[in-house]
Amino acid sequence: MPPHTHTPPPEGVPPLHGEPLPLEFVNTVFPVRGVLTDGFRTPDHLAWWLRSCRGSLVTPLPDDAVDSLSAVDVQSFVMLRDASRRLIDAFVNLHEADSWDVAHLNRAITMDRCWPLLCWNAGERPVAVHVTTAAPLIAVQSEIAHATLLLLTGSSGVEPKACTAPGCVFFFDHARSRREWCSTGCGNRARAARHYARRHHHRDY
C-alpha cells in the first residue's frame, strides 16, 4: 500500500478550492465559526497541505522531506504565507505594500536556483526535468514565492480578488470565473445577507 494513502488529515485543516498555488497558499488562514484559524498550526497540518498541493508544484517533494518537517520549517512557511497574504491584500485593495513583506518575498525567491534540463528517453516524448540546488522544503518555498511574484506583476494570468461574502477572508482567481465569491457557499451567504438587509431596511420605514 502506498504510504499515507489512508492517513486521515489532522483536525482543522484548511479548505482547498483548487485556486492557483499562491492563492491556495495564502488561503491557509481561514474562518471557523467567525474565528480566524491558522492552517499551518503544526508540522502535521503543513504536511497535509503540502501533500494535498503536491500536484501544483514543479519542485519534486518526496515523502521523506514532508515526513521530516519541524516546527522551524512550519515557522518559515508561516512567515512566507503571512507576508504573501499581506502583499496580495495590498494589491487587491490598492494599498501600499509593507517594505518588509516585499523584502521577505524577494529573499524567499533567491533561496533556490532552479532550471529545466531536457530528458530524452528512447521511444518516449522528451520532457523537462527540473533541477534545484536547494533542499526540497526550501525549494518549495522559493517556488511559491516566485509564483506570487508572477501573480503580483500580472505575468501569471491570475487576477486575485477578495471574496465579498460576509466573514470570508479568502482570495480567488477572478480571471477564471467572473463571480464575486470564492465558493457557492459564500455566494449563498452573500445573497441571503443582502436579502435580509433589504427586508430589515423596509421594516424600518
Question: Features of this protein?
Answer:
205 residues; alpha+beta; two-stranded antiparallel ribbon; two-stranded antiparallel sheet
Integer average pLDDT: 89
Report how far apart the termini are.
66 Å
What is the helix content?
A: 40-55%
Written as H for each helix and E for each strand, in order along the chain, the element string is HEEHHHHEEHEEH
Shape: globular
Distinct helical segment count: 7
Task: List the strand order in the largest sheet.
Answer: 1-2
Structural class: alpha+beta
Low-confidence stretches: 1-5
Rg, Å, rounded: 20 Å
State the major sheet: 2 strands, antiparallel
Give the oligomeric state of the chains in this entry, treating copies of one chain as homo and distinct chains as hetero: single chain
The count of strands amounts to 6
Strand content: 5-15%
Indicate the topology.
Blueprint: H1 21-26, E1 29-32, E2 35-38, H2 43-52, H3 63-67, H4 71-92, H5 99-109, E3 114-119, E4 127-132, H6 136-152, E5 160-162, E6 171-173, H7 184-203
Antiparallel strand pairs: 1-2, 3-4, 5-6
Helix pairs in contact: 4-5, 4-6, 5-6
Description:
By secondary structure, the chain is of the alpha+beta class. It has a domain at 21-110 and 136-158. The chain has 7 helices and 6 strands; from the N terminus they run H-E-E-H-H-H-H-E-E-H-E-E-H. The chain has helices at 21-26, 43-52, 63-67, 71-92, 99-109, 136-152, 184-203, and strands at 29-32, 35-38, 114-119, 127-132, 160-162, 171-173. The strands form 3 sheets. Strands 1-2 form a two-stranded antiparallel sheet. Strand 3 and strand 4 form a beta hairpin. Helix 4 runs parallel beside helix 6 and helix 5 crosses helix 6 (136-152). The chain starts with 20 loop residues before the first helix and ends with a helix.
